[in-house]
Known about the structure:
The protein has 609 residues and is an alpha+beta fold. It folds into 3 domains: 1-87, Herpes Virus-1 (2-Layer Sandwich), CATH 3.30.40; 204-358, no CATH class; 363-608, Neuraminidase, CATH 2.120.10.30. The chain has a 4-stranded antiparallel β-sheet with strand order 13-35-34-33, with no helix packed on it. α7 packs parallel to α9. The relative contact order is 0.07.
Amino acid sequence: MAEALKNVITQSLECPVCLNxxxxxxxLSCSHTYCKTCLDNILECHGNNQMLxxxxxxxxxxxxxxxxxxxxxxxxxxxxxxxxxxxxxxCSICKSEDKPQAVVYCQDCGKxxxxxxxxxxxxxxxxxxxxxxxxxxILSGKVSVRRYHKCRKxxxxxxxxxxxxxxxxxxxxxxxxxxxxxxxxxxxxxxxEISHTKSIEDLKSKADKKRSCFQKYVDFIDEQxxxxxxxxxxxxxxxxxxxxxxxxxxxxxxxILIVEVKVRTEGxxxxxxxxxxxxQEHITHLTNIADVVTNRTKIPFDMDALAAHDTLRQDLQExxxxxxxxxxxxxxxxxxxxxxxxxxxxxxxxLNLGNIVNAVPKSIALPTSKDSINSMVSTPxxxxxxxxxxxxxxxxxxxxxxxxxxxxxxxxxxKGFLSDGRCVILASSNYIRLYTLxxxxxxxxxxTLSDDEGGFATLTVDGDDQIYVSYWKAKKILVFSPAGGxxxxxxxxxxxxxxxxxxxxxxxxxxxxxxxxxxxxxxVLKYEFAKEGYLLYAAVSQWNTILIATLKHGAGLVSIDEYxxxxxxxxxxxxxxxIEKPEKYWYxxxxxxxxxxxxxxxxxxxxxx
Length: 609
C-alpha cells in the first residue's frame, strides 16, 4: 500500500506538458499547475499574448506584462517536491521491519536494493542485463527512474488498457466495471502508446516539411534582396564613373542621383524585409509549438496530461494549415528594384550627369560551344544546368554567365536532382548514373532498357526522389528508386509519345512536340493541350503553374504562356520572339528560381527576364 501511495504521489508531481517533475511550478487562475518553462513556451507559441490559455481546461489567465515569472508559485507543491527528493529510499526486497537504506534502483525489476540485495541480484544470470541506477545519480537529477503505472483504484493492477472515449488508462478490472458500455472503445495501452508516438512523429515530419518550405521562401527573398542590392551597387558605380569624368561642379547632382537610387531600392528592400519577417515569425511559431508537442520521450497517462497534449497537438495542426508562401509577391517587389538603372546624358547638358530610369527587360541569347544541347534542368542552388549529348554539362547563372562545366566526357540525354543535391544523369546508351554534389560518380547501378529495347529516352525526378525514365520505342515509363537496381514499377504510355517528361505534383507532364498532356502516374489522361502547326514544350513554373512554349520552327518564332494545372490559359509572357532557327527540331524549357525563363535550342540558350 505504501509503495502504491508513493507512485500516486510521484505521478501527481509531474507536469502535464513536459511529463517531468515540476520545476518552478506556477498556478494559473483555473488552479492548474505547470512548469514555468512550459508556460513560457506555450505563451511564445501564441505570439506572446498577455492571455495564456490552459492546455487542460482551456481557461484563460492574464499574464502581467507577458512575464510568466509574475504568476503565483505553487509553494505547497514545491515543498512536497523537495520532501520527496530528500527522502531516503529503503530496500524493497528485505523482509525485516528495520529495512536498510537502498543504494541502487533496478529499472527492469522496479525495485530499490540495498548493498546485500544488489550483490545477490547481480549474481543471477537472468538479471545481469538489467539496468541499474545509483541512488546518488537519481537524487542529483542526473538520471530519472522509469516508473510502472498502477491503477489508483486497484493498486496491485497495472494500467494495461486505454479507453479512447474516456481518454484515460485503466486496469482490466476497471475496464470490466466501467468501460464495457456501448461507445467505449478499449485498446491495449501498448497499442495506444505506439499510435500516439506515430501520430507525434507524423506531426513532427509535417512540421519539419512546413518549416523547410518557409525556409526556402526566406532564402528566395534573400536572393531577391541580393539582386536588388546588386542593382543599387551597379547604379552607384555607374554614377560614380560618370561623376569622375565630369567637373567637380556636379557633386550636388551626383548626391541627388545616389539618394534617388537608394530611395527607390530601399522601398523594395523594406517590402522584402516585411515578407521575410512574416515568414520567419511563422518558422519560429512552428518550431516552438512543434518542440513543445513533439520533443518528448514520455507518453502522457493522466487526464490532465492527455488534455494538455491534445490541446497542443490541435494548436500544431492549426499552424500546419497555414498556406504555403506565395513566391509571386517577392518576385513582383524585386522587379521594381531590378528595373532601376542609371542613364547617362551625353552631348546634351554638360551639367547633368543623367537620370534614374526603369530599364526595359530584354532576352539574352548565348551561343553555346556545341550544336548538341539535349536537356536542361534547374540546379538546387537556383542556376541552370544545360546538358550536351556529345558530352558535358554547362551551368549558367540567371544573368547568362557560364559558371561551371562538369562531366565533360559523359554524353547527356537527361538529368535531374534529388532532394539531397545528388545529380541523376541519363547518359548515352540509356545508362542512369548517380553523382555527388561535387559530381563524383557513385557506385549505384540501375537496370535500364538499352537503346535497342527502349529507343530514345528522357528523364525526370519527382518530389519523392523517384526517378522516371520514358522510353519512346518501348512506349512506357520505368520508375526507379535512388538505391538503384530494377525498376520499382512501370507506367504504360500507349497513347503518349513522351519525348519529354516533367514531374508535376502528383502527375507527369508529357511533351510529344505536337501535344502537352497531363497524366497521373498510372497513365490516365487528365488534361491535354494541342495547337495545330506548332511545336510544344512544357515546364513547371516557380509558382507551380505550367509554362508552355509554342514554336513556329520554320519562322524561328517562340511564344511562352502560363497555364493553370488544368491547362487553362492565364497570361502571355513572351510573344513571337525571333530566335535563330536551329536545324534540329528539339527544344527545352525551364524557369530559374529567380523568375527568368530559359529556352534552349540545340545550339543556343535564351534567357527571358
